[in-house]
Amino acid sequence: MSVIVTDAGFATTDWAADLGAQDVLTLASDTNPHTVDLSAAPKLVRVEFPSSADGRGFTIARVLRDHGYTGKLRATGHVIADQYAMARRCGFDDVEISDDLAARQPEDQWKFRSDWRQNDYQSRLRRA
Amino acid sequence: MYKYSEFDTAFLAERNAQFRAQVERRIDGSLTEDEFKPLRLMNGLYLQLHAYMLRVAIPYGTLRSAQMRQLAMIAEKWDKGYGHFTTRQNIQYNWPKLRDVPDILDALGEVEMHAIQTSGNTIRNVTADHFAGAAADEVDDPRPVAELLRQWSTDHPEFQFLPRKFKFAVIGSEADRAVIRAHDIGVQLVEQDGKRGYRILVGGGLGRTPMIGKVIRDFLPEEDLLPYAEAIVSTYNILGRRDNKYKARIKITVHENGIDTYKELTEARFAELKPQFEGVDQEMLSSIRAQFAAPAFRNAPTDDFDAAYKADPVFRAWADTNLAAHKVEGYAIVSISLKKHGETPGDATAEQMRLIADLGEQYSHDDIRISHEQNVILPHVHKSDLPALHAALKTLGLATANIGLISDIIACPGMDYCALATARSIPVAQEIAQRFDALKMEHDIGPLKIKISGCINACGHHHVGHIGILGLDRAGVENYQITLGGDGTEEATIGQRTGPGFSYEEITDAIERIIRAYLEHRTDAQETFLEAYRRLGADPFKAALYPDKAEGKANAA
Question: Which molecular function GO terms apply here (chain B) (predicted)?
């Protein structure tokens, strides 16, 4: 089982649980985001993080957003609380972690990072 | 000089609070060691041979006196009373305790400093020409651009877990005093048809596979810098290898894919990113530039300098080696050597740091630089102040007249501190410096750069030393390989290996044989070692290094 993390903390239910297979696209961390076919307009794209040290998923998310994907984006796998703000800033909507990880890094550690809009050099440098 | 905005201050306070919590969460088990490691690294904390090491960023090598005093305070309060200045314009503390580190970071924050991204697979401290703003040959001061890049790269959400570390260096002149060709991205301020822009190099680096950076854009318009840099790194994050850490640097990515393919992918990504930068970064750059405005230079006579130069041979020797031309008449750029013969290259005691701070405040418009060659620079000193400055430097062993000479050696920490090292570097540097000091040959030899690395990772930049020394481990015994002809300037060249290495006991003698061969073969005292090597090739030096072999060859013939 897994836990979905949003800005509000640990979600009690997963809104995506009832989605059909055709609505969900899961991408491995070695996916080249520039060639992902989004023509089927998935409602949810899940990007896998095999290890918290593997940062490819952050670029995958940003490229998908830059290519116009407006559906939900989820980071799934070994994402730690310290990476929550990075994930949100790169365009992910939520993070899916294992029960074990959720037990080791309880909700308060994730909420500590939920104000991801604060103190963000990037948004400061980009927008007028 | 740059003063933190409210934003910078708030960011840093939050970041330090986060790290404090991360240390606690490591202790309570919330974070595993594998998870904690990249987090401590991106906050500058290494685990070394004997203890933790904290690497503090000195962005573009620039310090105010108050910052230098705080570095001295930290050295005394939380370390053993000294710090070590590195080849990437950082200062390292070798003995902090983990539980003290959050307090050290707060103390740094008080003077607008940090240790963010000085380690780990992130974009590292952005370095720059240590003569920036003072050199006569620059298009413009490169530091404002380096500060913009610092802000852009700090906590960049996409680039905190790259395949490998990633280093930027920025210069503002054709002369390359920051080794940009050995950086992942090198940025050179240029002017074309009256317009400012940048020459961008990519894929340089030393380490076990040395490569000279390749030009990816000969002229990048000024406003495109951040989206272009982002496109390069974004491309690397997807394309860079993660299966082998020795093949993970961008130099390998560019080499394996070819610069043309790499450029094509970068340009495609750039086209997507460019519209996201709406120009506010350029407004910020102008306001940063205003903060780097040149100080009010004074027009005063230099009689005191001229008199001391005539009267005092010790002052004259120092002035001849340690001063560089300043863009303003009557001023000089002063290099303070941290390479006193027999001392550890790059080390400074708290007392020395405080003296440097005082002198920087009094004589250099509160502007102090750290060079990648591990020396300190006072960039704006009026010549009339030089005799007094020199006298003050002498009191704490800071007046060594050896900048650019054989004892001005770059050396990595080596096996004395580093867990990766395969050989000692510091004692080799000390012995070479003392040997040539004892022989009183240093000034006769003239400009010569010796660079020493204690392992194949090449932190001591041995590949670009005129004489490079690489310390390896051969079956448990230190073995030192020599390379010749390397050059870290705009004519960047990787040095060539001479042949079999030498033992720890033999290496200083070997260097002396090279030097004696140079003195014998040079056309005159004007021909530098590097020029002589380029004219002669390696043969006369190899003959001097391996006399038995040369004899054997002669006999065979």
Answer: 4 iron, 4 sulfur cluster binding; heme binding; metal ion binding; oxidoreductase activity
B439-459 pLDDT per residue, tens = 999 999 999 999 999 999 999
> In chain B, which among 59-88 make CB contacts under 8 A with chain A?
none
Q: Is A124 exposed, middle or buried (0-12, 13-18, 19+ CB in 10 A)?
A: middle
Number of structural domains chain B divides into: 4
Give the residue carrying structure tokens 């990037």.
A122
Within 10 angstroms of residue B489's Cβ, the number of other Cβ atoms is: 17
What angle do the packed helices B350-363 and B65-78 form, to 10 degrees?
A: 170
Q: At what angle are helices B386-394 and B350-363 packed, to 10 degrees?
A: 170
Are B333 and B355 contained in the same domain? yes
Distances in Å between the Cα of B34 and the Cα atoms of A76, B21, B39 are 18, 17, 9
Q: What is the DSSP string of B479-493?
A: EEEEEES-B-STT-B
Cβ contacts (< 8 Å) between B38 and chain A: which residues?
52-53
At CA B212, angle to CA B211 and CA B217, rounded to 5?
Answer: 125
Domain assignment present for residue B282? The answer is yes
- Give the C-alpha separation, B466 to B405, whole Å: 11
> pTM of the full predicted structure?
0.96
Q: Which residue of B has its CA nearest to A84?
A: B157
Are B282 and B337 found together in one domain? no
Last residue of a domain, one of B246, B272, B293: B293
Give, as one character, the DSSP assignment of residue B494: P
**Chain A: nearest CA to B36, how far in angstroms?**
10
Question: B480-522, pLDDT tens digit by residue?
Answer: 999 999 999 999 999 999 999 999 999 999 999 999 999 999 9
Residue-by-residue DSSP string for B80-97: SSEEEE-TTSEEEES---
Q: What are phi and psi of B449, to 5 degrees?
A: -110, 115
In the numeric block, which tokens belong to residue B108? Answer: 């740094």
- Same domain, residue pair B94 and B138: no
SS3 content of chain A, % helix, strand, coil (to 5): 35, 20, 45
Cβ distance B14 to A119 less than 8 Å, yes or no, reads: yes
Query: Same domain for B279 and B155?
Result: yes
Give counts: helices (H), strands (E), chain B. Answer: 19, 21
How is residue A105 written in tokens?
A: 């890094």
User: Could you read off the pLDDT of B369-428 as tens digits, one per residue?
Assistant: 999 999 999 999 999 999 999 999 999 999 999 999 999 999 999 999 898 999 999 999
Place of tokens 């896998």: A48
* Residues B159, A55: C-beta atoms closer than 8 Å: yes
Q: Are B474 and B501 in contact (CB under 8 A)?
A: yes
* Range of the structural domain that residue B7 is part of: 1-116
pLDDT of amino acid B47: 86
Q: To probe the interface with B, which of A58, A64, A65 has the most B CB atoms within 10 Å?
A: A58
